[in-house]
Design goal:
The structure is a single chain. The chain folds into 3 domains: 238 residues, no CATH class; 146 residues, Mog1/PsbP, alpha/beta/alpha sandwich (Protein Transport Mog1p, Chain A, 3-Layer(aba) Sandwich), CATH 3.40.1000; 53 residues. The protein is α+β, with helices and mostly antiparallel strands. It contains 17 helices and 22 strands. The protein is 43% helix and 22% strand. A hairpin with a 5-residue loop joins strand 11 and strand 12.
Length: 483
């Protein structure tokens, strides 16, 4: 009886797997290749829409309606020439200084302001937007997720999931920020390059601008010297060998005259005039272990030696052993008491009685807690502080063993929270791109001497895609970076 039931279950699973493989293989109209896809278009769109909300909240959008409208118009122009024009395409510029661009399933595409300031023409921007559209039309993300699901179906035979459990698993494709960590292989990258070339060609752009993007990305990576931060675009998009040469051959193979095609150099540079360059100190910045936030008017000192990061929704510090963390964030509650009640009432939370106190003259509520999760038991402290109309959450926790040594450092950090009064910090402004039209021919070195920038001559050459010693014609527009 038990043996026949086992046999029946295995047969059902094998039949389901075979059915999925047969029905999920179809020809992609963009690439012309057969693909294994378990995720339908409706589910693909829902995944992208759910993740879009998280990414927008996490990274933040660049606060310039004209730039947002521009990227939407450009993206729609390119996506309309794709094989999937009916998707709910969305194009956004995120407020991130890193050189990056990425796409989510369903047509949700993001360009950072960091990569925008490194382009020198609209056609270059179009090539990267087209490349990201290519990842969507090529269905590269959902193909990866489908293969992961099939692997789990194979595991189901070993764990004897019943039909109900198996069906539930197949409908639970992951979305959210985890989609950002899907890495594309060389084949996917070549397809996205080819599709990006196809779309910018169909949209009337000069595709000869595309190889310059790869040159620029390589220079950004080389400038990092292996020890700095390489472009995130190169991290999430593995760079095949001879990528620039391959796309040049593809352009030549089109056999077209591109002399009248759209480049959009001057008009694009005019759009960059005034764009924020690098990190925006108004959203908070570190001076060593001291973190200062001009907009929210607070300061906080992290322990020396901890790794710190200023994120859109939180400021985080992690100790050297990476088993204790301090996090500062805003709450949605109106008082420290209400915030403490909401936090300490979570499932699995055991805490001390909340204590009303003051931190540097600010009303606060503190408590110690022990939280049981599926992975481990965490021990920590939390403080809720009222300041300037907001309630801040200061959270410190770690493993039981780590907390014994980290607790004092966490408490000192909590005690350092206070009002920011430094006039220089309060008045901090970001660097911005300034577009200058050359009155006469000059080298980039001469340009830097006549029109000083807040960045090095090497960085200036990089964002202008120029060589330091080369002569630049009069009337050319160049970028500099000023306060």
């Amino acid at each position: 009886m038990k043996r026949s039931l086992l046999t029946a279950r295995l047969a059902a699973i094998c039949a389901l797997t075979t059915t999925l493989v047969v029905t999920a293989c179809s020809v992609n109209p963009a690439t012309g290749e057969r693909q294994f896809i378990l995720i339908g278009e409706g589910r693909e769109i829902r995944m992208g829409r759910e993740a879009d909300q998280q990414i927008t909240a996490s990274l933040g959008l660049y606060d310039d309606p004209a730039i947002q409208a521009y990227i939407t118009q450009l993206g729609n122009r390119l996506s309309a020439r794709s094989e999937r024009p009916g998707l709910p395409w969305s194009f956004k510029v995120v407020d991130d200084p890193i050189v990056n661009a990425f796409a989510l399933p369903g047509g949700f595409i993001y360009i950072t302001r960091g990569i925008m300031v490194h382009f020198t023409s609209e056609a270059q921007l179009a090539s990267v937007v087209g490349h990201e559209i290519g990842h969507v039309t090529g269905r590269h993300s959902v193909e990866q997720l489908s293969r992961a699901q099939l692997a789990q179906v194979g595991l189901a035979a070993g764990t004897l999931f019943g039909p109900q459990e198996l069906q539930g698993f197949l409908g639970a494709a992951s979305a959210g920020l985890g989609l950002l960590f899907l890495k594309f292989g060389r084949s996917d990258e070549r397809q996205a390059d080819d599709l990006g070339l196809r779309y910018m060609d169909r949209a009337g752009f000069d595709p000869r601008e595309m190889p310059g993007v790869f040159t620029m990305l390589g220079r950004v990576s080389a400038a990092a010297g292996g020890g700095g931060r390489v472009p995130e675009w190169l991290s999430t998009h593995p760079n095949p060998e001879n990528r620039e040469e391959r796309i040049e051959r593809a352009i030549a193979a089109l056999g077209k005259d591109f002399s009248e095609r759209e480049v959009g150099r001057d008009s694009y540079l005019d759009r960059l005039d005034g764009m924020v360059f690098g990190p925006d100190p108004r959203d908070g910045f570190f001076d060593g272990a001291l973190f200062m936030h001009p907009r929210l008017r607070f300061r906080l000192t992290f322990p020396e030696g901890w790794q710190t990061q200023n994120q859109r929704q939180a400021v985080v510090g992690v100790n050297g052993s990476q088993n204790a963390i301090i996090q500062l964030s805003l709450t949605t509650q109106s008082t420290p008491d209400a915030a403490a009640r909401a936090f300490l009432s979570q499932n699995g939370m055991n805490s001390s009685t909340p204590r009303r106190t003051t931190i540097n003259g600010l009303s606060a509520v503190t408590a110690d807690f022990r939280a049981t999760t599926q992975q481990a038991t965490l021990v920590g402290s939390v403080a809720f502080v009222a300041h300037d109309g907001n309630v801040f959450q200061l959270l410190g926790y770690g493993t039981t063993s780590a907390w014994r040594s980290a607790r004092d450092e966490v408490q000192r950090t909590f005690g350092s929270f206070g009002e920011l009064r430094d006039p220089d910090a309060l008045g901090a402004e970001p660097l911005r791109v300034d577009i200058v039209t050359l009155p006469s021919a000059m080298t980039l070195q001469q340009f830097a001497e006549r029109y000083p920038s807040e960045i090095s001559i090497e960085q200036l050459a990089l964002i202008n895609q120029r060589e330091v010693g080369a002569t630049i014609e009069a009337g050319t527009k160049l970028k500099r970076v000023v306060k």
